[in-house]
């Protein structure tokens, strides 16, 4: 494994240095996603925020590594890197699968030397302990898996018709869906951290009402924001998501 410049850890990527930042935002990608999903966020965030993105094994700078197949191992790897690279106040933001990884990371970080994040942002995902919308997706054949990916709006129709591209993309996506589907948190407990949950009004995989159940996962208050768009509303409405992020971090 090679370390990513600027962090000293292969688990984290930093796109812009923010030496004078007062708070660090750590971002967790979706199933099949990589750190580059958040590249534009780094430039658009106000200067007072530094941004780090978790890079899961098996993609981009970590392509040669086997993917992680247990949620607990994925969260523990991310937590070790965050504790090594972050000092001072920080927040976690996870989209889709990333929301679950961020939740599991929050539980572990709260017990460690860094302490709990100031806020957890959970985007486009039902709360832990509930059967997710993608149950059984990893068991589909390649065509079925591609149909799910395209229905969510993350990949334009036809892009994954190329079999060479499929052979690169689908094993990672399938592995991530398997990881989520086999995630069985024992008695998922509320975290002592305020939560902002975000939902797409037209997300075919999870309804705003299901996203609202994150209210049960916090003892410190909950905000629900419903934005226009499908599962990938943070791409099409990035400015609004960042406005909500900055607003709630200023609370």
- Radius of gyration equals 17 Å
Q: For the largest beta sheet, what order do the strands appear in spatially?
A: 1-3-2-4-5-6-7
What's the mean pLDDT score? 92
**Gap between N and C termini, in Å?**
38 Å
SS-based class: alpha/beta
Beta content comes to: 5-15%
Q: How many individual helices?
A: 8
CATH level-4 homologous superfamily? Alpha/Beta hydrolase fold, catalytic domain
**CATH class (first level) name:** Alpha Beta
**CATH topology descriptor:** Rossmann fold
Q: What's the total count of β strands?
A: 7
The major beta sheet can be summarized as: 7 strands, mixed
Could you spell the SSE succession in H and E letters? EEHEHEHEHHEHEHH
